[in-house]
Automatic annotation (TrEMBL):
InterPro entries: KsgA/Erm (IPR001737), rRNA_Ade_Mease_Trfase_CS (IPR020596), rRNA_Ade_methylase_Trfase_N (IPR020598), SAM-dependent_MTases_sf (IPR029063). One of its GO terms (molecular function) is RNA binding. The keyword S-adenosyl-L-methionine applies. CDD domains: AdoMet_MTases. Belongs to the class I-like SAM-binding methyltransferase superfamily. rRNA adenine N(6)-methyltransferase family. This is 23S rRNA (Adenine-N6)-dimethyltransferase. The keyword Nucleus does not apply. It is an enzyme of class 2 (transferase). Keywords: Methyltransferase, RNA-binding, S-adenosyl-L-methionine, Transferase. One of its GO terms (cellular component) is cytosol. PANTHER family: DIMETHYLADENOSINE TRANSFERASE, DIMETHYLADENOSINE TRANSFERASE-RELATED.
Amino acid sequence: MPRSTFGGRHELGQNFLVHRSSLDILAALASSTTGPILELGAGDGAITRRLATTGRHVTAIEIDEHRARRLARVLPHVHVVHADALHHPLDAPVIIGNIPFHLTTPILRRLLSTHSWKHAVLVTQWEVARKRAGVGARTMMTAQSAPWFEFALRGRVPAWGFVPRAGVDGGILTITRRASPLIPLRERQRYERFVRDVFTGRGGRLDSIVRRASTLTSASAARALSEAGVTPRALPRDLDAEQWAALWRAARG
């Protein structure tokens, strides 16, 4: 395969998924959704071939122009586009892909700030998938997005399930847009700032951090935590989506 003008596999972060049971999981998750599908980073087409059997409209984007041309020849019923996942419109109801590990954060940020899709099925680093799904502890990005999206961990991909072998295991992460958001979308920017201020707040108990991140009094902050079912000694990473939403409703006054 000739070298892409964007670089080789190392520069493009290409670790192609070949783990059969993980491909089966991805295909099943895609089949549980409806509507056109957009695949990010089609590579050699291991996922694309599964999607092509669904009978749905599939658009597969691939940054390596040589692989994109070859895939278009092999799968003529798939709309293969030579494009960059960081710039191509995320305009399908279903987004699926084995995304380059080094681009996980910017691609996730694009997804979570785009309003045109309903379901995303992604292969990311194991720890990223685990944290985004709130297994063990939630990240600030997850907390900032949780009122509008639900995250779930669907499987683990061994490092040897990629070619070339990945440096770490992968994880299968699903993101679903909530039909009924916990917070109105018009409040998203203010809510995200509130979450950031709580996550980055220094010292003291959580009720003190929430008070400093809002206009609440000490008594009101303590009452808001109690009503949300959160102990003052909890950490921001311990809160679930409903608890964050409850704290925000109290903080916004």
